[in-house]
Amino acid sequence: MSVFERNPYEDQHGLSTIESEVLWEYAKLLEHVKELSSRVKEMSEEPEQALVSQLRGLERKMGLVLTLFRASVWAVINDQQGLESGSEGG
């Protein structure tokens, strides 16, 4: 029987009703924390490979952006040098 269905402390003669209910809430909280811990552990192990794969794709795209940026800067520099040499020769 699940701790969520029945209070395991209600038959304890040394506890008042409020004490057994408080202990029951702590027991339910403990089960939630265990479940949360288990899920966090699963999540921390699994997506690592997926994240690495996504980051590799992003790295390739950023490399392409850097290459295009360098080509654009090179084109601007060449255009400026062409304008300067054209104005000096004329």
From TrEMBL:
GO terms for biological process, alphabetical: attachment of spindle microtubules to kinetochore; cell division
Keyword line: Cell cycle, Cell division, Centromere, Chromosome, Chromosome partition, Cytoplasm, Cytoskeleton, Kinetochore, Microtubule, Mitosis, Nucleus
Family matches, as Pfam families: DASH_Dad3 (PF08656)
Subcellular location as annotated: Chromosome, Centromere, Kinetochore; Cytoplasm, Cytoskeleton, Spindle; Nucleus
InterPro entries with a match to the protein in the record: DASH_Dad3
Nucleus found in the keyword field: yes
Stated name of the protein: DASH complex subunit DAD3
Organism: Sistotremastrum suecicum HHB10207 ss-3
